[in-house]
């Protein structure tokens, strides 16, 4: 098959990689439905994908990964830059030369008997001044088909790129899915990514975390913009005005759910509505009007399946009813559909679990993997924003940070100002989830939900945030923190969450517009109890007051943890954040 471009930088890279991996065949992904259909048929014939019931789930497929390959591997993810200091204390670092040698040795001849797929893709709407291009080379049809949902792929991307060398090089080799030789390596100085021995989502869909966050965060620092692990939503009020919010929560902490929220009935009747612009990643830049404008670089949702149902997130569930790839969920053998924990209360009787084994729902064993996922096209989403394809993006009024904290963090609070908001983001902590391998439920610091995704020294990243605030001045978004996950003594969530989070978003927008007062506390501004609407909720005023409380003793302990975390950064920690920590300590001591 002939090349789809005459761009010399791309052709040279492709030739170099071809000589290295030594494929039997080469295929350029042109983005046509005919070609993708051919690949779907081939994947079904080899068993790589299972075609699901086409009447109930048209265009849908199921894929099972290897059992040792079900989540991102943070301990095997590396930033490979010249100086170790530039990767910083929160990243694994490898010398670039050493990394290339090791990875090329693993990749050598690994495509023997296989096809090399060359995927030209765009992160962001093709032609947007905020978008960027990449080439991913892979030997996995599953990766091609997922990239075709998650990004804009094909010839149109190359046409817009022309002869430019401003694109990200990505090589993915499945190899033997050997967990001992699995490496996800980033070369920010070369605009390059190499991923070997995995076939799972965030490790291999190189446009997503590898490019759109790790490489792009580095580009953003150098070019004066931001790449963040944030959803983007538009909140429409009864007058029809839409305000945009960007929110950073760690993996599996509620971004997809918040981005697609359906307001409670009372709000709906008044005319409130939420539009989804993005559910995982935001690229943001100062616009000509001085405000911060954001695009979602992705074109689909790689969402957590368990817990998704018609009550918690109908928009997500509806998005998965056609042209979707399911990974590591239960297969219902009676009607060839899919199931996962939390979909409904009727687990299938005749079914295979995520490993493809006969599964008895009464065994007590989970059928779907806790990190099982759906890959669904954004156009499927009933509440997709009319601005989704906008080349200039949407203006952001508020930035919201949040995590899973059983105690300490209140339901919502507003930072004192932008720099204090950067401090609030920098001290984020959350209980770990199944989205990455390792222990689940352990509280760890995860600044701006970027701990696993920042492509350079996080101290410099904090400084970049502060610079962005200075650049935006009084047009900078207001910064908030939320926590949907406070628990009672029995470990139950106190706040109902999901659609009812609308009640908190409304307070946030009212604060941005100066429409509501708040109570000043040591950590920032907390709502007056009467200003969060709890009508229709099974929640008393006292309970609400409880989750809005700022416990000085817990927060004093928290400052010890922050101190310890900040110490890692040495001189790289901006003085302004040290001052913020001291200010917080003083206010707590009062
Ligand atoms: P990634 O795709 O890994 O980045 O995850 P995410 O941040 O998009 O998380 P998602 O919305 O998929 O939610 C993950 C889990 O959190 C699901 O099991 C949800 O049911 C649960 N969850 C989401 N929102 C809420 C909420 O408001 N309250 C409670 N209690 N749970 C929630
Ligand atoms: C996350 O873990 O934050 C995800 C899933 O969104 S992955 O693509 O695997 O990174
Ligand atoms: Mn994510």
Question: What would you say this structure looks like, in words?
Answer:
This protein has 590 residues and is α+β, with helices and mostly antiparallel strands. The chain has three domains: 193 residues, Phosphoenolpyruvate Carboxykinase, domain 1, CATH 3.40.449; 236 residues, Phosphoenolpyruvate Carboxykinase, domain 3; 80 residues, Phosphoenolpyruvate Carboxykinase, domain 2 (Beta Complex), CATH 2.170.8. The chain is built from 17 helices and 31 strands. Helix 16 packs antiparallel against helix 17. The longest helix is centred in the middle third of the chain and has 17 residues. It is globular. It starts with 7 loop residues before the first helix and ends with a helix. Bound molecules: guanosine-5'-triphosphate (GTP), sulfopyruvate and manganese (II) ion. Sulfopyruvate (SPV) binds next to helix 7 and helix 8.
